[in-house]
């Protein structure tokens, strides 16, 4: 039995009262919601105004964002937000406050030969200049390297070998070829055009044998080192290199190189100290007793056009092909052989201290990732175009970015500014630094920007670059004014000559650029910008006449404007690379690069098939790379940019793409330039293509496309070709696997 309490009862009046209250609440609800929204909005606006007022107190402190990305302040900052257009305006305003022209003039007046007292004084001045700026770190490192200099007591000589035995007076006796072999060489003279492998093969086909001869070669087309290497491969005893008027400017309104001037150039087929290959030349370091394989075993000497004219007039034999004819007056340009000559080279090796100078602005989010910009400081002669321009622009960029730091700017990644020594001997300073830190640089260096050879004219613009930077360069060109066409951007100026802008502008990195070692040796993407004369080379490079006055005259007074354009281009590139959340490197470009080369190889697919060979594996590896690049692109597109950990992970994968194209299947000691597109050796795509050409040419080569170290007379070798194909395929496949990310994401169905 349950006991029940009295049940509650509501009277009719109570139930009626509750109904009235419910009805009133339903009618008032919208008004209550509206009132709440008004109160919230008012509070939000009041808070926003208070926040803006507090930001005004921050002064000029900024936080930089890209064009379409809004970077949030870090927890340690009180910074506001600054968009790309604001940062760009700040950079250009501060850059305009400097005086590039005077810095170029003053630098060109100073002695800057590597190892000289003048160079030591300049290095001290530049270090002090960096120390006065708002940089986080300034330091110097010194390397003790083997450099070659002429012997004043025993100058190099050139004699006729005849009854009179007369000497040909070298009009520039202190102009020489560093790293030439030393001693005497006697032989008949032969004219060899530019000295490319195809030129020497063509000589042989015309019945003129280069072996056992001294070869007369024109300046241009390939480097001094490549000319001498080709001559050595064909059995020549020595090389004489001269500037032909046909390869220089014929504009009567521009200064000309005097006919008595010779041109300087080193002949080491490589970079860095050739007496410590692969090792950094720090003091007291112990080295194995080995020299670089790129050191020549034959003699080399520069001569003037006047001396070359005397030699050409003595040559006999068949007349040179029409395309080999130069513009020396009253000379028939015959191939030879001619009378005998005796060349004596007495250069000597000197252990020389060289110093690189560094300045750094630390990044706020990724300080262990560096965007590097550098310029050669040394010069043989005045070196206005060779290194004074680059040094002046480097110092101006340091001053400008330092001023931006004073305004509150702080990049995401570190900026590293470097003044290199020993550049005229084959990028010695930069290569020694790379050798010293090779094991970490590919993990830390994002991009290298070279300021060498930046202003050699004002008509054309070239960017010698890694494919990873092409898209970014295109974007920056659209934002820099042309220095000699008012109202046009550089991009508009370029496409007015050629609608295919990259065909007009983009060039591969040459070995004589400091940027080359960064990419081909260390696997760091690099770029070198150059303004050039239209058609002909700047005539005074590597001569005693490379003065500020001649450079100013050659550019018809536009030197300041062109140097300013280079500074704007380089500076805006640095901002994007150091401050974008996601690195603006186009990793898909290498798929196009492979396809471009494969188009050339396809020409020989029938010949290869007849021998049981196929290019299918290379195509498969390229396909895997394209798929990996597209997969990464989609991952990035669908991710949150505010996720710092994820962005850093993507950036690490992107910045190592260049390194993936260094062949892991060849020894760095034997093949230091392991890059399969830019390097030298059997592992490269260029070497594979050269070898394939032997299927049809029977040993003959196109002088414009053949590599510099092809062995003359070599026939197609199937075993060697298979090995080359394997090296290329697996390097490309390795790049695809690495780009895919973690091992569990890799498709192993290759």
Automatic annotation (TrEMBL):
Transmembrane annotation, as ranges: 31-51
UniProt main location, coarse: membrane
Compartment list: Cell membrane
Similarity section: Belongs to the peptidase M28 family. M28B subfamily.
Keywords in alphabetical order: Cell membrane, Disulfide bond, Glycoprotein, Membrane, Receptor, Signal-anchor, Transmembrane, Transmembrane helix
Organism field: Erinaceus europaeus (Western European hedgehog)
Domain Peptidase M28: 356-559
Keyword Disulfide bond annotated: yes
Protein name as it appears in the record: Transferrin receptor protein 2 isoform X2
One Pfam short name: PA
Domain PA: 186-253
Membrane topology: Single-pass type II membrane protein
